[in-house]
Amino acid sequence: MLGTYIENVRKCVPLVHNITNYVTVNDVANVLLACGGSPIMSDEPEDVAEITAICGGLNINIGTLNKRSIESMFTAGKKANALNHRVLLDPVGAGASTLRTDTALKLMKEVKFDVIRGNISEIKTLARGSGTTKGVDADVADAVTEENLEDAVRFAKRFAEKSGSVAAITGAIDLVADSERCYVIRNGRPEMGKITGTGCQLSGMMTAFLVANPDHMLEAAAAAVCTMGLAGEIGFSRMQEGDGNSTYRNRIIDAIYNMDKDTLDKGANYEVR
Amino acid sequence: MLGTYIENVRKCVPLVHNITNYVTVNDVANVLLACGGSPIMSDEPEDVAEITAICGGLNINIGTLNKRSIESMFTAGKKANALNHRVLLDPVGAGASTLRTDTALKLMKEVKFDVIRGNISEIKTLARGSGTTKGVDADVADAVTEENLEDAVRFAKRFAEKSGSVAAITGAIDLVADSERCYVIRNGRPEMGKITGTGCQLSGMMTAFLVANPDHMLEAAAAAVCTMGLAGEIGFSRMQEGDGNSTYRNRIIDAIYNMDKDTLDKGANYEVR
Amino acid sequence: MLGTYIENVRKCVPLVHNITNYVTVNDVANVLLACGGSPIMSDEPEDVAEITAICGGLNINIGTLNKRSIESMFTAGKKANALNHRVLLDPVGAGASTLRTDTALKLMKEVKFDVIRGNISEIKTLARGSGTTKGVDADVADAVTEENLEDAVRFAKRFAEKSGSVAAITGAIDLVADSERCYVIRNGRPEMGKITGTGCQLSGMMTAFLVANPDHMLEAAAAAVCTMGLAGEIGFSRMQEGDGNSTYRNRIIDAIYNMDKDTLDKGANYEVR
Hints:
Largest sheet of chain A: 9 strands, mixed
Strand order of the largest sheet of chain A: 2-1-3-4-5-6-7-8-9
Number of strands of chain A: 9
CATH class of chain A: Alpha Beta
CATH superfamily of chain A: Ribokinase
CATH topology of chain A: UDP-N-acetylmuramoyl-L-alanine:D-glutamate ligase
Oligomer: homotrimer
Order of helices and strands of chain A: HEHEHEHEHEHHEEEHHHHE
Structural class of chain A: alpha/beta
Radius of gyration of chain A: 17 Å
Number of domains of chain A: 1
Strand content of chain A: 5-15%
CATH architecture of chain A: 3-Layer(aba) Sandwich
């Protein structure tokens, strides 16, 4: 049962270093606090090695990358690897520009990631080594559906095998796979797509789950995905007439704050293929 | 009736590239999603041309400008012009510093803007080619009132004519003008001034309205102003005892999320002069 | 009574220049507006001298420092000193990295600060001239408790004397001291630690209090601490089943928005030692 993995986060209070975009960074910090972790942000090359050294995990998100922060991603990533910390890549917008695609691919070569979490278009771009995406959202043509699920699961496993990282591909149906097993997760609500940064928030939170469950990368990543999706369901159930995406954002973070082992065990909706 | 213009945004789902300040960027993203658009942020010179190419509109906001982002503004602005995308300038703090004033004026020379949206002090600074403002808020001495309305309308039209851009001047009374017609808008609430970034949010949303209504710059800009102001009224009506500016911020974004053609048609409060 | 000091903020509407981290900057802006101040952000070296010149106070927060913003901190700090503006330092993460510690110490040498506000681990690092902290949160071993209060008060006074700045050390028990007197404040709630940036928010708000009460640095700083803590209590009293840290964040800012002289006079919980 996945509830144990969030319980471990609350016990461990993992300190997570985030090199992340300035659009959603505040929500990433509050979600990390909500799930029981502790966030720290730093993206200056001269600062990141020491900051990442005092943490247990590193979350690299290329959402508003620039020359300075890219340098920091490599420096911090290598340092985290050297210290055997957990490291996650969120390749925001890979496929939308050459700089984003190339940075993500180069990071995958020079840094060992425990998990790569993105939407299906971003992960397909990384699998192909090039590609195009419609901005930071997944292309409809790429969407994982009940019809193409078999193929998508196979793709996720193969990507995990080739990259050496757990693949966490989120969308209407979420896939979290290593080379042999794939969690197919059906939590969440379509309205979550109307809130900026639920993916970024998930990546930050997932890094805390990885740190707190060092021997269970696949299950920890799946538990984080279920936590986010279930929080989306619980938050939605608390919406009232006239509420919209801003209140929904607060409700989801609140639901993560209140998530416990039992709630997650009961609400997590997944199968393993 | 202006309701059609938001309906078009929801149908078109315009992708808007924002080079904007880090203070209010998260709200800008959520407001863009609330109105039916889709946001993407990028401010690295090497990244912006490709990012803006996949979008339909570009929102340039100089609120926390720096050397790097300034370079990106010119690169992206020229690229957007070359692709005939809609482009908007929000000259935050023009008049408050030489760098801000000069950057805004230089942008106006080298980039063709469909709309320039700012407070009256900022726009007066741009009209004069120099000036001083009290920080990022309009100077009281500049305020558009019922008493000086005739003059202000004339000023707005002349600014639009000279700049070649629709002028969107927001305050207690909002003016949206091209060289011949001026929407005088009386939506909104004074308490909106106690929330950071309602102007930035409006600029992001307005860019989506421009993209979705390419043949109606003036009306689209006016519709965005009415949407924001009306959302301010609706949001305020939902405030409860003990609520303050933080809840009000959420309520306004929620109201935009729920805004439809009929609500906007009925609630928009304007005259054309 | 401390209520007078917030009343003065609402009368004066102090314009505060913030060079602050991008994690919590939006909340800092909204808290400044909530308490009656007016925020402006700028961190480009070429921009900051003019921006700080039009303000009454400068809030320097090293939370996500980089080479560019560090240069801006020195430029703005010296300019603010030359103009006799109020200046505050928030040494986020001092002790967590060499760059942070060294930057804070060098700022203290070259800029005169009216107040230095941090957690106990950060302030101890500055007192020693070096040190380690657990990320951006205070180390448990450093915590100010009823048991070590005498020593902590003595430490705060000595730090104030040596640094020439009022020391505002926040935690479960808050200490605000000059060389002779120390406010020992017992407002606040432990749940505030589950919201990112309550410290940053306090620093921004405190700067407004300093500007509006130029002859009472110690009392103004203490009043700001009581305002934040009391808002934390009031906000918590409005929490409902299912609410969490995201709603709590909104409730606290709302409570600051509604804070008046009487509420602060009645709710402030402090003694002077």
